Amino acid sequence: MRSVRIGLGALVTLVVTGGLAATRTTGGAAFLAGAQSFLTFYAGVFSLVGLTATVGLGLAATDRVVLPIAQRVRVQLLHRAMALLGVGFLIVHIGMKIAAGVVPPYGSVLPTTNVYVSTGAVASDLFVVIVATGVMRGRFAQAERPWMWRGLHDLAYLAWPAAILHGLTAGRAAAPWVTFSYVACMVAAGTALLIRFAAATRPARQAATGEWSAAPLRRSGHAGLGETRTAHTPPARGRTGEQAPERTPQEPRLRRIV
């Protein structure tokens, strides 16, 4: 994460320096005016797309059924990168709206304007808390209450629908395919969340009901419990070719049904 922060700091410094230098020329000033207009129109869209991908990748990173460990680690890195990208565009989106006079500075943090803009303010506050807890995950793991990190990080499942509601209602009218896409994403994320919850609670339910069974043992020529063999497994022999002595009977081991 340190290298990521250094890279982001260098990128921000480069962009700010280039923007200040561009204002000293006519062409640069025209380019910046066009970039400002573009970001005013699309920064919120990019932020919402990035945060939607963040939620989806976060769900995929916790999967223990389909993805192996190595793939989950890669997905987690993408999850963090998309979170930083989404919050970056969120900051740009808020700055552009304040500069255009659409919302007062306090209205971007406090829900003091109309309902739909206030929904975006609440969502942005929650996303900032979520990203901050993600950056400080190691400190939460060493604390006395590691479950607090999970509770704060799971606020994304409240912030993300609020951000979608803000994006579809606060600004210009959304195209039908845009509305359908976001609704489909919410349904898919909700389904994945239910599957993850069911998979996480399954071992606890089985432990509560006490579902245990003895491992199947095959008898090999004597009535007592003895060495487990199959019909195709020859008896073990020593170096001289003689049959090795039978093992002493052992108690059957119990294994848990998962």
From TrEMBL:
Key words of the record: Membrane, Transmembrane, Transmembrane helix
Disordered: annotated span: 209-258
TM region positions: 37-60, 81-103, 115-135, 155-174, 180-199
Superkingdom of this protein's organism: Bacteria
Listed Basic and acidic residues bias regions: 244-258
Protein name: Ferric reductase
